[in-house]
From TrEMBL:
All residue ranges annotated as the CHAD domain in the record: 1-235
Name of the protein: CHAD domain-containing protein
InterPro entries documented for this protein: CHAD_dom, CHAD_dom_sf
Region listing for Disordered, in residue ranges: 234-258
Biased composition (Acidic residues): 249-258
Organism listed in the record: Deinococcus aerius
PANTHER family: CHAD DOMAIN-CONTAINING PROTEIN, SLR1444 PROTEIN
Amino acid sequence: MSKRKQSQAASRLEGLWDDLRAGDPGAVHAARKLTRRAQAELRVADAGKKTERAWRDLRRAAAPLRDHDVAGGHIRDALVELGVPEGTLAYFDRTWAERRAALLDATVWPDRPPAFDLRRGWKGRARRLIGKDGDRLLRDGEAALASEDSEEWHAWRKRLKRYRYTLDLIGGVPPIVTVTLEALGRLQDAEVVLGILHGDPDLLRYERARLIAREEVARQAARERVRALFPTLAEHLEDPLGTPPTGEGEPEEDHVGA
């Protein structure tokens, strides 16, 4: 039986807490990944509702800033790809930085979440959760792929991401999980960028139509990519612990909508 073990998420968070509260982009990125790991660790801990709530509050506090950074990166890359003038890029950089400053000013950081331990026997608990997760993810994935509802796709992605971090607790993650999450992440990025462009007609008004067209193509391509990957993912989900893993490493690139 596995022994009690200190949460890695909690120990790593302490070292970047001050930078996080200052809004450092790298710290915001790292903190959001740590909240995802903590979410998986808390599934096999006896930390209590108060600790779970503290980590959830931190994830929600950091999300708007990180989503802003990721979405801004996509929009800027698109502008470069479209060959817009340097003046347009400078305008976007200035506008996006002003928006980020306003977001940071409005952010209310919670107290740092407490440390916690993974309970005795946590590996066995993780394996049981992985088996149950596989069954549900298979059903939910089939339903999402048959739908055009972006919220259904996003909900499935969030559950698959939690599953990915739970897998990582006991070993490596099969490549099919990582590449599927990457495609789902690009889909969510497109949804968010489209929401920004449709919601603010004054933002990049002269490039808006081309940006929207680009993201609509990216959204459709991401969905088709996930559909193509799903048969292999389904084979894994039918026997999650029988799929040869890779090394632990980091998950797929960060995307909006943690």
